[in-house]
Specification:
By secondary structure, this protein is an alpha+beta fold. It folds into three domains: about 190 residues, Jelly Rolls (Sandwich), CATH 2.60.120; about 90 residues, Phosphomannose Isomerase, domain 2, CATH 1.10.441; about 80 residues, Jelly Rolls (Sandwich). Helix content is about 30%, strand content about 30%. Strand 18 and strand 19 form a beta hairpin. The two termini are about 20 Å apart.
Length: about 400
Amino acid sequence: MKLLKGVVRPYAWGSRTALAELQGRPSPSPHPEAELWFGAHPASPAKIADSSADLLSVVDEDPVAVLGAPVAQAFEQRLPFLVKVLAAEEPLSLQAHPSADQARIGFAAENRAGLAPDDPRRNYRDSWHKPEIVVALSEFEALAGFRDPLETVDLLRCLQVPGLDSTLGMLADAPDGVGLRTVFTTWLTLPEPMIAELVPEVLAGAVRALENGEARFAGELRAVLELGEAYPDDPGVLAALLLNFVRLQPGEAIYLPAGNLHAYLRGTAVEAMANSDNVLRGGLTPKHIDVPELLRVLDFTPVSRAALMPAVEALGAERIYLTPAPEFRLSRVELDGTGLQRASSISFDMPGPQILTVVRGRIEVFAPGGESRTVECGDAVWLADSDPDVIVRAASSQAVFFRARVPL
């Protein structure tokens, strides 16, 4: 059992208040703080409190003992998941993640091509896929998954932009993944002068529609206006018109498998993902965009908002978000330190590695007859496979934490 200190990643789209306030630091912070990492990813492994070690070195020292033999064997002696607290003040890039086979093949190909690990032209930083789940801590907005093309036809019609007439025709004639691929490819490969003309027309249409009281697509239109203001010459603004607009309330989640095009817009959330850094970008960023490789990775199958939201299984105080990802299972636990409204403690006896990340109040984690750790808000605790079973108790009037483990 080890107390973990997360590593802050200071991307430009991050918040100056969310992570600082979560951890009880002075707010606003001097610079935007976008993500707080708890894991053993080589780029930013979590620090072991009161030690010079980090979680990556702990895993590497004895992977079978800390991960358990089944996990160590299945995931090449790596901790297979990464936990983050994400704080988005501005939209992230339009992106997707590869499947396991695509990641393995792409990583090998870029190695053969001689691309350095930190080369900005790299699409594949490792050979692993990156399914992920995001659970809202605050109201959280995102664009995710290609919506039903017939709904997109209705959205484009309400814009009343003549330059979109050909797109309307494509989707009306092929309201399926084929039509979506055709439209998306067309938009991403338009000459810059055409983009510079079409995007302002779309934005003007969005303003008109909202002024005329458009309610059905109000969220989508506001999102496109925000993206267009930040990236006025980017075809990703057009591509955003094809995606579901999702607004999550605290505790609600979306699961993003391989090939799902998405962009997080704003809000604070907990993310669990496979331990990878592979991202294929499609716009809304100055970073490298490889259109042919992105098209190879994307899944154009239409998906509904409801289908993006995983089923939730309640087990006492634990709410388990069910996904098919073999690398992680994320759950949310809320404890009542007063014992008046809900349970004040919970016991865990599952095998394999676990990370418990506190997002409200504080908890005490202890092994009966053994050691204990008090974990403050914004920190986490690492439980190795070799650790004894533990009991987690609220050490404040209200305590909320997330449990990430491998679904053995």
